[in-house]
Task: structure prediction
Amino acid sequence: MADYDVIIIGAGPGGYVCAIRCAQLGLKTACVEGRETLGGTCLNVGCIPSKALLHASHQLHEAEHNFARMGLKGKSPSVDWKQMQAYKQEVIDTNTKGVEFLFKKNKIDWLKGWGSIPEAGKVKVGDEVHTARNIIIASGSEASALPGVDIDEKVVVTSTGALELGKIPKKMVVIGAGVIGLELGSVYARLGADVTVVEFLDAITPGMDGDVQKTFQRILKKQGLKFVMGAAVQKTEATKTKAKVHYKLRKDDSEHVLDADVVLLATGRKPYVDGLGLDALGVERSERGQIKVGKDWQTNVPGIYAIGDCIDGPMLAHKAEDEGMAAAEQVAGKHGHVNYGVIPGVIYTWPEVANVGETEEALKKANRAYKVGKFMFMGNGRAKANFAADGFVKIIADKETDRILGAHIIGPGAGDLIHEICVAMEFGASAEDLAMTCHAHPTYSEAVREAALACGSGAIHS
Ligand code: FAD
Ligand code: NAI
Result:
């Protein structure tokens, strides 16, 4: 008899959700975690702390830019950085403790320490070897390195260092105009830093809808972020308090240097599988280091599964969670399923940016006939009242069947609005189904309905 039905390695959103579902399905479950606290990258150094800083800095932005217009007079708040850090830590703590509570409630054993797999069916933590019928790897990811850029997490930092800087920098250079760069770049720009984003490509947030990319960059520029596009960073040179970023413009190979107090490297993340012993076990991995899995999330080694950031697909907490639930169902002999066509992505800047499904660019490439319904937030009463009318909702539907294929939103509450479109897509709805659904007035969600109307007979308020 094995000690456990399932041992999960890693207690991020993939691992901890998987552990809870395994326990709910009646499996004897343990979860190995080497960090001091549960919750993984997301709760400790990712989604949650970054959203706390985005929230706090957005409040400051509102006070500085919009309060007086609404008749709220008085001195703008000043920033107490130590207190903002304490607030961020409090948010982290309540969340990680929440996961610990759920482990206890569901009778999941937390095996504290770093785990390895000496052979299928065994997990070693410290000096102890535990046996399990199934092992699920949910070891997550880490920041990718860039040659010539040495990270000290003080002056040249990854997102982890950027979340806990000793002080707000006067000048910050962000390498990479992706999700991390723009979210954390926004935080420090709102807090008063002079932020320059250096991006290798000619557009920000690669892979996103082209209209959104342009609007998003225009809005961020208006908020004070500067951009150097088409630039290949060669190296950084850092002292204890300052750094220089050397880059070459791709169009003419000209060389340039930027000075900074802090440099944030945000050029992507890669799977973290160090110390698990995968090579000795013969677990297959892709060229990018992702653990290869089949449709049931099982690797080529029977009884060993993998989920979340350490396998292929978008590196998102909710994608990891969905895989965690589905893999648990598989291990329990049920039929876990993830619809990879309907995984939303959200950037939590102001305004928020959200997307799901196909882009126009991808449909054009695939030669598929589609139609677009677009509605500007300028025509939405609630958005105008809240000084949040810059942006739009764009719905893409099949030209013949009207079935919704994707949606792209930049505007207030985009991260919440996207979900009615996700649900519609899950049900195979047409744009007309959305357009025929009564939406309360005055809400931002009316913009979604108007975009759906624009796919057919036309929006009312444009
Ligand atoms: P992780 O959360 O990385 O967890 C893996 C855990 O496994 C870690 O705690 C690690 O310590 C542990 N571990 C690894 N190896 C071992 C071992 N051998 N033994 C024991 N323990 C081990 N995603 C979103 O969807 N929304 C966001 O807003 C968002 N914001 C982000 C902001 C930042 C700054 C960053 C860096 C990421 C953000 N992400 C966001 C991405 C999100 O954090 C990840 O997609 C998510 O955490 C992946 O979950 P996971 O369970 O696969 O791995
Ligand atoms: P990313 O993949 O989003 O963006 C990286 C950017 O860096 C790209 O624009 C890329 O073109 C650029 N780049 C790559 N090499 C470069 C170079 N040498 N010089 C200049 N630019 C270069 O990666 P990021 O922002 O590091 O985020 C990592 C992961 O974390 C993402 O996959 C994302 O899904 C996840 N995440 C999700 C969040 C959310 O859902 N809101 C928030 C933060 C992170």
User: Anything to note?
Assistant: The two ends are 67 Å apart (CA to CA). The longest helix spans residues 81-105. Residues 146, 175-181, 183, 198-201, 206, 232-233, 266-269, 314-316, 346-348 surround NAI (ligand 2) (CB under 6 Å). The first strand starts at residue 4 and ends at 9.
